[in-house]
């Protein structure tokens, strides 16, 4: 599998886009993969839109994902300069100030546009190593391939189970810590509940604790599609030190801010959100 993935990264991006369209056709028209689920989620999120308007979003979201998968494969081998030409940052001075102050930064990103390009683009653009928290793959060969591909520009992927340890070990080193923060926590774990796209939605807790421990600013990574294969990123401050000595409670102002930023992005460009993930897996328990 590792050799196959390595071979696929050598295919030119235009040809990978063609392969992506084949994948789109199979997933959307033939297999109808999760179409009913996505249609239900879109109906709840956009009740004011007509069925035809939601159908356009549904179809375009699958097309965008097919393009993203093609770009991800190509990006695993792309040079730093090639990635920088395709992902630009509107306000890089925020990271530059942190680097000058020898300060770590917590970066919260969603599954939106081409989220996989954020790590190499940040590593190639800033003088700050960016480590991404990730869930290890079941296939060891795939996991090795992904770790090597994601660590090409100075950062290092950190398995979820090792994150606390790695955080303590590197506490004195200025780094960026990137988390894909829109995944659903397990039902038995503590979580932050809020209204998101017209539904009670659970978000991971932990960003506050990380920020307090590192005394680091927290930024929402807002990515938008400029044109096919080209993106722009704006860094939106969610919280900044000093945080004081107050204990971190069950609620999460940082994740509330994340939810609001993500909701605005989805409302502005709904087809760029990863609707195929099973975002709403369980209802909000009474009293939470």
Which key features would you list for this structure?
alpha/beta, two-stranded antiparallel sheet, 11 helices, seven-stranded mixed β-sheet, 288 residues, 18% strand
Question: Can you offer a commentary on this structure?
Answer:
The chain is of the alpha/beta class and 288 residues long. It has a domain at 80-271. The protein is built from eleven helices and nine strands. The strands form two sheets. A seven-stranded mixed sheet has the order 1-9-8-2-5-3-4, sandwiched between helices. The protein has a two-stranded antiparallel sheet with strand order 6-7. Helix 2 runs antiparallel to helix 4 and helix 5 crosses helix 7 (118-125). The longest helix is centred in the first third of the chain and has 25 residues, at 51-75. The chain starts with a helix and ends in a 20-residue tail after the last helix. The relative contact order is 0.16.
